[in-house]
Amino acid sequence: MTAALEISGLAKTFGDKVAVDHVDLVVPQGSFYGLVGQNGAGKTTTLSMAVGLLRPDSGTARIFGDDVWAAPARAKQLVGVLPDGLAMPERLTGREVLTYLGLLRGLAKEVVAERADELLAVLELDDAEKTLVIEYSTGMRKKIGLATALLHGPRLLVLDEPFEAVDPVSAATIKTILRGFVAGGGSIVLSSHVMALVEQLCDHVGVIDRGRVAAAGPIDEVRGAATLEDRFVELVGADSGDAKGLSWL
Amino acid sequence: MAVAMTLVRMKIAILRHSTKGQRGGMMASGGVLGLLLAAGTIYLAFLGGDWLAAAYAVWMLGWIIGPVFSGGGDETLRPEFFAPLGLPAPRLASGLLVSAFVGVAPVISLIALAGLLFAATPGNVLVAVPAMVLQLAVFVLLSKVAVAVLGIALRSRVGAIGAGVINGAVLAFLGQAWVFAVAFGQGGQIPSFVRYLPSGWGLLAVQGDYLALLAMAVLIVLLLAAWAALLTRRTGANRPSTRGRRPMRAATAREAVVAKELRTWSRDLVRTHQLTFALAYGVFFAAAPLALGWTGMLPWAAPIFIVMAAAMTSNSYGTDGTALWLTLMTPGASDVRGRQRAWLVTVGPVAVLLAVAFTLVTDGPWALILASVTALLGGAAGLVPLISVYALVPGTDPQRRGGNPLRTSEDDGALTGLAYLMMALVALSGAPALVAALLYGWWGVVAGAATGALCYWGFGLLAERRLAAQGPELLHMMRTGRRPQRGGMAFKLPDLPKAQRTIVMICWSFGAIPLIPQGIVAAAFLANDRLRMSWFLATYMPPGLRWPTAALMILIGLTMYGVGLWIPYRAKKRPPVYD
């Protein structure tokens, strides 16, 4: 079976800094894949290259077999993306963002209206009907971002830090949506540095360290007998044992 | 004083980091230009009359109005940085004031103020030193207060429109200063009130009126208090606007882009301000000669408005920041065409209304005005997306702009350069139709419609292709806020020797003067048999030399732009030398 996402040999250098160093990852169809790594390990850069938002120096990314860079139109139709910290059309309301994007995706006007209604209700954004996105809180921005990723009915979701700054109640809603998406045959890749979250949600995990894949595969294989957190610390080589305390506290 | 010294050290450290690379180049060329102006000002100290007072008035206006165009003035140290420290507002304001004296612009202004040393009456030379410092403090503080007031004005629609009208009027009248010089004075005389503006107080002091020193000190204290009060109001987000919203009725991808753009136009107060400014500038610039009873310039308000509106919107993609990712994720939908249509819908009706109304008032010249309006509208609607993808200046994402809404980009020098470039290019796009109208009357309108449609279609197509080919690079540029160091994808000066860089800057800055007013506009006057027009040289020439003079001016202007483009082009072709 074709992989939902197949990354092979992706590499990116910024100036002198090697951000991503020939990363290979395979996200099987129907899997819930967690990408973990320290800040600056290259998660966001890898995901950006995988969905066509950042041009790689070398390597390829295929979404259900379609090359993101050679056949972008088909590949991009199958994927929904939630990038971290990028702007939206800020002067639109949540509903207007969804209408705008749905039409850009080529959906019929009525379909867009129905889906927007449902997304806004489920994500509890319908109270903010008159609020422009620029006035949204960080958590609300994540939710409207997720709504734009889900709107066109993609088969693969690529989510960069989807739970950051999201309150526990909204997080539970999002988890339910994501689990339902996977149960329905969809595939998800999400990046996070919260190990507990990845252990709770994902069935596959990839550990990125300094631009390389340190370990990847089904989560039970990667963590073995230890917890994911202990295994992660072991893999990235940071020694948690003698972390320095602060001298004045 | 401890706060002030810390802030000064911080600013020096930041400036030292930013003198490298391209911003350093911009700073250097700006500095050279400033030095030339300062030298010119000092020269005026040796002339009699009120020339020096008039020059200082222009410097003062520059300090007040400049930040509106260069993205909110010097924001190296932002008040928001220090909000968590809980400093009392007056201490923070005085600290920021002291640090505001560190920089290229204050040093150059101080050099210009050295003219006071030469203008001092015998025995008052020593007075000139405190007068220079106080005068500079007045300039800097006026600038800071103006930016703060504008920042607060831009939080409400009424404020944004009001500020746009005032800024447009002031700048237009400054551009038309000769009209008022003629209207007030008796030819070549500076009206005497100029001496009593705050910009002239230093001059009064060195001429023996010591009270002026005291007056400056009082003014400084008042401005400082006002600024401190405004700073406390600046922090905090914009007031949320929760008016009723009209539902989006778009049904196709292109309509959706138009709807998005039109909503952004009407809801973003910075854009409201820019458009009002362009409109006010056009109207006041064209109406100023009415003070002399001359109505001939009035119908040109519409073309001026179009050119100005294009210049103000020249960084269309940059101001939207990283929202570009949505465009990249939907490759089939045409963002460029939607933006073009929205630009036309926003600017077009106002421009046409203005053109028709004012041309009715003056009863012509219909062909000239309609030809240039059609040509310029099409040209601008094509050039705006084209320039904004080819010469993108990375913007600050709208949600991260903080307390200064004018600050749409960190790279304010490039933003100003882009606006000038746009003005010149849009004006050029109207030139063929204008010439056709001058020579063949109504055929000019046909020519205007043809070139306008061609520019709209062709430049839009080029912009679309560029966006498709370089979209990820543009997004990356906006994500990092920096242009890539190499690759030559953006509009940037390659590393040129200083002398060449100065030539390029001078060509770009001043090429428009011979080309447009002295060339094209003068030709328009000649065609209408309007002679001895203010500063249009060709209209003063003996009959046989009039047309050659105008033609020569156009040639000089084109040559300047040619040289300005050719030098960097040649340098880019050469392989870079690493040492």
From TrEMBL, chain A:
Organism: Nonomuraea phyllanthi
Subcellular location(s) per record: Cell membrane
GO MF entry, a single one: ATP binding
BP-aspect Gene Ontology terms: response to antibiotic
Signal peptide bounds: none
Main location as per UniProt: membrane
Listed name of the protein: ATP-binding cassette domain-containing protein
Keyword Disulfide bond: no
Matching PANTHER family: ABC TRANSPORTER ATP-BINDING PROTEIN (PTHR42711), DOXORUBICIN RESISTANCE ATP-BINDING PROTEIN DRRA (PTHR42711:SF19)
Pfam families attached to this UniProt entry: ABC_tran
This protein's UniProt keywords: Antibiotic resistance, ATP-binding, Nucleotide-binding, Transport
Membrane topology classification: Peripheral membrane protein
Automatic annotation (TrEMBL), chain B:
Top-level taxon in the UniProt lineage: Bacteria
Name of the protein this chain belongs to: Transporter
Record organism: Nonomuraea phyllanthi
